[in-house]
Specification:
By secondary structure, this protein is of the alpha/beta class. It folds into two domains: about 100 residues, no CATH class; about 180 residues, 2-Layer Sandwich (Nucleotidyltransferase, domain 5). About 40% of the residues lie in helices and about 15% in strands. The chain is built from 13 helices and eight strands. Helix 3 crosses helix 13.
Length: about 375
């Protein structure tokens, strides 16, 4: 018999959000790890709001904002307006964030108002460090074999916004720039002054951009250090040298670092060796003056292993630009770009941890 096309909505419902989410849903372990990390930040969250006037209206819980920001990366939600819309009717999103079915969703402007506060207290950095510590506690990090690399992050600015710093072309149309030589010394973007014209190869045009730098552990390709910087021809090697030095001091023993040909410079190799780090850098034999890497390094079997494993670092960049929002950020300013890049790498680590937990259960 044909059923009727209609329904009667009950006045009261006894169904819990927890019952809508399958027991094997991939967000379940991610939410558990996220909650453990956020519980460790309770003291910092309290300090963030100490300066607020007492007796005022309670703000949105920072834990809920952090979970919502993570969802935006995990589900490729382009804007915060779309994220708030999704949370309003998506039961899975409500469950992950920690909202009941009848709870009202906040306005999208809450993210903008709280972003500076989160940056000031390095909350996203602490969340990222918590994912690294989780990986370390589960035995997923080698702690001695690493890789470094950088990627281009297109800024939220166009060529038309790049004007002379002295204002001599303010009376010209924004489109009238073709054929005119431009450099970061004489020009800057009016939309995002901290962005720099940069390109990583001659096959691509120079765009207002930032650089994202990552260090991964070679065992499972998990990100252990992350930083965004202004685009510069030396920034990749300078930031990588800083990361390598920090990793060597934390390890307390000699470590290795794999890198591509762009890092085959005497300055970077010297910085590695001064920090008791073995530079497993790909040789750039076409470089003027020859490669900075010689037989002292290449004769060891570990060099070939590092050269194979270092390519896994491209996976986090690809994930961040395809799944995340790092291909072109919708934020302006280095601090905000760095926060988003760090959050994206934290989300990448959480997805990798979930996959590794299925393949390699804890204690196995």
């Amino acid at each position: 018999m044909r059923g009727a096309d209609g329904y009667n909505e009950s006045l009261f419902s006894t169904v819990r959000l927890e019952e809508f989410v399958p027991a094997n849903h991939p967000l379940r372990p991610i939410r558990q790890w996220m909650n453990e990390a956020l519980s460790q930040l309770d003291g910092k969250f309290s300090a963030m709001y100490e300066a607020d006037v007492k007796g005022g209206r309670p703000s949105i819980a920072p834990e809920k904002l952090m979970r919502a920001m993570l969802l935006q990366v995990l589900y490729s939600v382009r804007s915060e307006r779309q994220l708030v819309e999704q949370i309003s009717y998506n039961l899975l999103f409500r469950w992950f964030v920690g909202l009941a079915i009848e709870d009202a969703v906040w306005n999208h402007s809450v993210f903008s108002k709280n972003r500076d506060r989160l940056i000031e207290h390095d909350v996203v950095t602490d969340l990222f460090n918590a994912t690294v510590e989780t990986a370390r506690s589960r035995g997923l990090l080698s702690g001695e074999h690493f890789s470094v690399d950088g990627t281009l992050i297109q800024a939220w600015a166009s060529h038309k916004s790049v004007r002379r710093k002295d204002g001599s072309d303010d009376d010209r149309p924004p489109e009238d720039w073709r054929g005119e030589p431009r450099s970061n010394d004489t020009h800057e973007s009016k939309s995002d002054p901290e962005a720099r014209l940069y390109r990583k190869s001659d096959a691509a045009p120079a765009l207002p951009s930032y650089l994202g730098h990552v260090m991964t552990d070679n065992r499972h390709g998990l990100v252990v250090d992350v930083q965004a910087s202004q685009s510069d021809g030396r920034a990749e090697r300078e930031v990588a040298a800083q990361m390598v030095g920090d990793a060597a001091r934390a390890a307390g023993r000699r470590i290795t670092v794999g890198a591509d040909k762009a890092y085959d410079t005497r300055g970077f190799v010297k910085a590695c060796r001064e920090n008791e780090v073995t530079p497993h850098v790909a040789q750039n034999l076409g470089r003027r003056g020859g490669s900075a890497i010689d037989g002292r390094t290449t004769r060891h079997g570990g060099y070939a292993v590092s050269q194979r494993r270092r390519k896994c670092i491209e996976q986090c960049f690809g994930w961040g630009k395809v799944v995340g929002t790092m291909r072109q950020v919708m934020l302006r300013g280095l601090d905000k770009v760095d926060q988003l890049f760090t959050l994206t790498m934290a989300a990448y680590n959480l997805t990798r941890l979930r996959s590794l937990a299925v393949v390699r259960p804890q204690g196995a």
